[in-house]
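User: For my dataset I need records formatted as: sequence, then structure tokens, nothing else. Please produce one.
Assistant:
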Amino acid sequence: MAYKIVMQYPDGDSEEQDEVFDTEAQAVDYAGYLVSCYDLGGEVLNMSNPGDYPLSEEEADYEIIEVDD
């Protein structure tokens, strides 16, 4: 069995990532990294123009799915 990540964003969009992981733990670790990148990107946009990009309390989330090898 292999695992993939489906990112879920606060606006209701979701996106299946291309990466395939051998273990669920590897997928969870990488999903945590993707969530932190999403948060950091929001902070950078806010610093560049806070009027157009206010900080949001909502965070991205993820789901780990099983896929066939």
